[in-house]
Each structure stands twice: as structure tokens, then as C-alpha cells.
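Deadline looming. Please check this record:
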Amino acid sequence: MNNLISNYVSRETLPLLKEYVTLIEQWNRKTGLVQQNTLEHIWERHILDSLQLTTYFGNKDQSILDIGSGGGLPGIIIAISGYTNVTLCESNIRKIVFLEEVVRKLNLPVKVIHGRIENINHDYEIITSRACANLEKLLGFMKNVSRETGSFGVFPKGKTALLEIEEAKKTWNFNAELFSSITSDEGKIIVVRNLRVKD
């Protein structure tokens, strides 16, 4: 386990994270939650990588939507760390079964939606997604589930982050801040605000 994790969660929370990691390891081969070769470094590659996103969130009762949640990264981790209004959206039924099992076993305040993001007709204050789509496409999803003012996106990206911002600006008007990831030299976190359709 990476020592930096204690910067984000209390000691009392660690058993929940460990139980979640155990569930991923048990389910991964048949459900494809994460790449099998990343399990060896799961605490840094997936858990800490997800936890660092909470740095940019704010108060813990804000409504948060995790698009294409997969195995619950980052949404389950966000909920474990104390956020009380987290929704996971996932279209793969096998992953939905896993997510519902995690929520039940860990007794998390999480809503799981089986379906496509295009069909959600609810607004959220924070939109996040990890390895689901390029930024231009994510912003299209974000626009559909954002409030008129105040909603923002937090998206972890790799070395293509700047290029993705440039491409997205051809379609969208938005303000973007870029932060370095603590788990990857090439990793970046894009925080998007004031998203509008380009005139």
C-alpha cells in the first residue's frame, strides 16, 4: 500500500479500501474490471490515482457523477473517502453486478445506474471519469448532466492532456486548469469549468 494514501483517508477507512481491493482481485479475471497486469500495483495505479481527484472537489455532500465507472474507479474510491452523494453510471451489466455487490458489502451511500450517460436526465455538481473517453466526448456527456452554473469536471488524463484540451476547444468553450498527477510523471488532471457550446 502506498504511504500517500493516508493523506487522503482516515485510518478507519483503510479496511474499506482493503476490502474493495480484495473484491477487485476476486472478480477481475471474469469481469475485466482493470487490466490484469496492473493488479500488482493496484494501490498506486488505481486507488491513489483515484483518491487524488478529491483534492479538487470541495464539500462532501456535493452531487458527483462518475461516467463509465467500470469497476468503480474513481467513484467507489470517492465514496469510501467520505463523499455522500455519489452516482455511478455504467452500461456493462457484469460490471453493474460487481458495483452493486461492492456498494452492498461496503454499505456505501452510492447510487448505481445501469445505462448510457446520454439517457440520464439529472444534473450533478461534479462530473468525473477515468479512462472512459477523450475530453471532447466527455464534455458532451458533461454538458448533458450539468447545471447551468457551478458544475465542473475533474478528469484524469495521460500525456495527451494538452492535445485533448486543444481538440475539445474546437467544439466547446470552457476554462481548463491542468494539474500534475502524483502517480504518473506523464499524468495530468484536467479541471473544467464554465462549459458552453461554441457559437
Notes: Residues 14-31 form the longest helix (18 residues). The chain has six helices and seven strands.
